[in-house]
Amino acid sequence: MDAHDGEEDDFEPEEPDEFDDEEDVENEDDLFGVTSDARTICHLCGGAGFIANPTAAVISGTPRTVDNGRECPHCNGARKFPGLVPPV
Fold first, then answer.
1. Rounded CA gap, 35 and 84, in Å?
2. I need a labelling partner for 24 at 20 to 30 A (CA). Which of 18, 49, 56, 64 fits?
3. pLDDT in tens, 13-46
4. Is 85 buried (19+), middle (13-18) or exposed (0-12) by CB count in 10 A?
5. How confident is the model at residue 83 (pLDDT cuts 50, 70, 90)?
């Protein structure tokens, strides 16, 4: 005998949620998102805002290379340029 014999299944599929009709809001923090304005991601840092700056250091008596990074000199940390900027 089955444990579910004589029981009705009360499963009802949920109705799909209505899509919100909100305006498309552009997020300035979304570097790789689609925007209505043309922009170019920095060619030097690749949109990170900083570049590698390896420095020799001694940590716990062991010589190592530490990479703290530094602000990108091309975009000054802005990560992108307005408009289309060809690589030079």
1. 13
2. 49
3. 666 655 554 555 555 566 667 777 888 888 888 8
4. middle
5. confident
User: pTM of the prediction?
Assistant: 0.51
Reported residue count of the chain is: 88
- Which among 52, 35, 33, 40 has a CA at the least distance from the CA of 79? 40
Q: What is the count of structural domains for the chain?
A: 1
Antiparallel, parallel or unpaired: β 39-41 and 80-82: antiparallel
Does residue 62 belong to any structural domain of this protein? yes
The answer to whether residue 72 is domain-embedded is yes
Does a structural domain hold residue 70?
yes
Domain that holds residue 75: 39-82
pLDDT > 90 fraction of the chain, expressed in percent and rounded: 11
